[in-house]
Amino acid sequence: MIKSILTAFVIFLATTVNCSTVFAAGRVAVSIDPPSVQANMGDKITYAGAITNNSDKAVNNLIAYISLANVTPGKEAPMDLEDWSANKAVKVDVIPPHGAYEGKWPMRLIDSGSYVAYITVVDKESAAPVTSPVSRLDIKRILRLNPNNVLPTAIGEPVIIGAVFLFIYLKRRNKAI
């Protein structure tokens, strides 16, 4: 008897939570574009996110932001976007009924690995945030340093500066004699 009551309560609770999530997702929908990206370290990409109002009333004061999570095996962690993107959160004042808002999040790819990017929208009238599907982001490590150009500069500049100082020293010394 107790198991039956407990099972019924768990089913009721799961249905209630599921209904509120569906209600929140039904009012506002979020998408991210492109669905996947393959790029190199140092590249600049732009994610576009569409926030759609599916209700018959205007939606006010939404906050939308992009998140990034590292899913590279052994390095799984959420990422701080301070170095990746200057445009983190966007405030959307109003979306008319059945209207849409499109936001853009430029990003500079600073580290190699496998990531997922997704957009989250917080609606103050909803009990749960709404998230977009994830966009796969695979960043290939690229070494942009060319040792053939660095070595002559690293050796050549001090030699040229030393030669200039030696020339000035010798000119002054010959005038003094």
Overall geometry comes to elongated
Percent helix, as a range, is: 25-40%
Class inferred from helices and paired strands: alpha+beta
* Overall mean confidence score, pLDDT: 83
Figure out the total of helices: 2
In the CATH hierarchy, the third-tier topology of the largest domain is known as Immunoglobulin-like
Tell me the major beta sheet. Answer: 7 strands, mixed
Number of domains: 2
DSSP, total strands: 10
CATH homologous superfamily of the largest domain?
A: Immunoglobulins
How much of the residues is beta strand, in percent? 35-45%
Descriptive account of the structure:
The chain has 177 residues and is of the alpha+beta class. The protein has 2 domains: 27-143, Immunoglobulin-like (Sandwich), CATH 2.60.40; 145-177. The chain has 2 helices and 10 strands. Strands 2, 4, 5, 6, 8, 9 and 10 form a 7-stranded mixed beta sheet that branches. A 3-stranded antiparallel beta sheet has the order 1-3-7. The chain is elongated. It starts with a helix and ends with a helix.
Quick take:
The protein has helices spanning 2-27, 147-176, and strands at 28-33, 36-40, 44-53, 59-70, 77-78, 89-95, 100-108, 113-123, 130-131, 135-140. The chain has 177 residues and is of the alpha+beta class. The protein has two domains: 27-143, Immunoglobulin-like (Sandwich); 145-177.
